[in-house]
Specification:
128 residues; alpha/beta; Rossmann fold; five-stranded parallel beta sheet; 6 helices; 5 strands
C-alpha cells in the first residue's frame, strides 16, 4: 500500500465500528468514525475521505439516505463507498449501487482479512 488513505467508517454498532477501526488503523490508514448518517454528513463537510464504509441500517439516518444527501456521483466522484448490510436488505443494496456505491459486504461474514482485501483493492483503483 503506497499511501495511507482516509477512511470514514459509518456504523452504529459500536463494537463493529471499533473492530473495523482497529483492523484498518493497523494497515496504516487514517480512520474517522461516525455512528449514523447524520454524524457522517457533518464530518464530510470538513473532510473528503478516500473511502467510506457505510452501514445501511442505522438510527436517525441510514446509508441510503446518507448517500442521497451526500450526492456521491455529482459532488464526490473520487470517493469510494463500500456498503455493509445484512441478508434482508437487497432493495437498499440496489438503491445504494444506483447512488454510487461500488461494493457491498455482508456484515455477518466479513472477516478482517476480507475487509482488508476489499479496502486495498478499492484503494488501488482510486479514481483520479
Amino acid at each position: 500500500m503506497d499511501s495511507m488513505a482516509t477512511i470514514l467508517i459509518v456504523e452504529d454498532e459500536r463494537n463493529l465500528n471499533e473492530a473495523y477501526q482497529m483492523i484498518l488503523q493497523h494497515q496504516g490508514h487514517e480512520i474517522i468514525a461516525a455512528y449514523d448518517g447524520t454524524e457522517a454528513l457533518k464530518i464530510t463537510e470538513d473532510v473528503e475521505p478516500d473511502l467510506i464504509l457505510l452501514d445501511l441500517r442505522m438510527p436517525q439516518m441510514g446509508g441510503v439516505e446518507f448517500l442521497k444527501k451526500y450526492n456521491l456521483k455529482a459532488n464526490h466522484p473520487k470517493v469510494k463507498v463500500v456498503i455493509f448490510s445484512n441478508l434482508d436488505t437487497q432493495h437498499e443494496i440496489d438503491e445504494a449501487y444506483r447512488l454510487g456505491a461500488e461494493k457491498y459486504m455482508l456484515k455477518a461474514w466479513a472477516s478482517p482479512k476480507e475487509l482488508i482485501q476489499l479496502v486495498n483493492s478499492l484503494l488501488k483503483t482510486k479514481k483520479k
